[in-house]
Design brief:
Blueprint (H helix, E strand, L loop, with lengths): L16 H6 L4 H8 L10 H54 L1 H10 L24 H4 L4 H11 L1
Length: about 150
């Protein structure tokens, strides 16, 4: 009597050892039990992941810093151009205000008129040092002569 073709009867319910070896083991079920917590990262990959994340953060930080520096440079360049133009405008205005024609025109508006003839005033010269006496003339040290002249006053 063949076990595979006939319906199992009460005594045939117990399988023999040969029948058990032919049955496939349930390997996927066993593996699923081991991985219930989800996929696990191998421990040696954690430093590599940390280094990659650090490099990524450093790159983003450097890019942000470079962008901010570029913006500041362009702002300062525009400000320099504006200040250079303002400096040129003020220099031109200063030259116009210092011109002698403008000063003469402003003086005439105030009621002044050019002089008919030029006059010179001579000032009286004053001695800075008193005349040297015989005692100081014989001295050969100019610093001593200066000190003596300053203390006489």
């Amino acid at each position: 009597m063949s076990h595979h073709t006939a319906l199992p009867t009460e005594p045939d319910r117990h399988a023999s050892a040969d029948d058990l070896e032919q049955l496939p083991l349930d390997e996927p079920a066993r593996r699923q039990r081991l991985r219930r917590g989800g996929p696990r990262t191998p421990l040696p990959l954690l430093p590599v992941i940390a280094i990659a994340a650090g490099i990524g953060v450093a790159y983003v930080s450097q890019s942000a810093h470079t962008t901010a520096a570029t913006y500041e440079v362009s702002t300062l360049t525009a400000q320099k151009a504006s200040l250079t133009a303002e400096n040129q405008q003020l220099s031109d205005e200063l030259s116009r205000l210092e011109s002698s024609e403008r000063i003469v025109a402003a003086a005439q508006q105030l009621g002044m008129r050019p002089a008919g003839q030029w006059a010179y005033v001579a000032s009286q010269p004053t001695d800075v040092m008193p005349p040297a006496t015989a005692q100081t003339a014989s001295s050969s040290d100019p610093a001593r002569d200066l000190i003596a002249a300053l203390t006489r006053r």
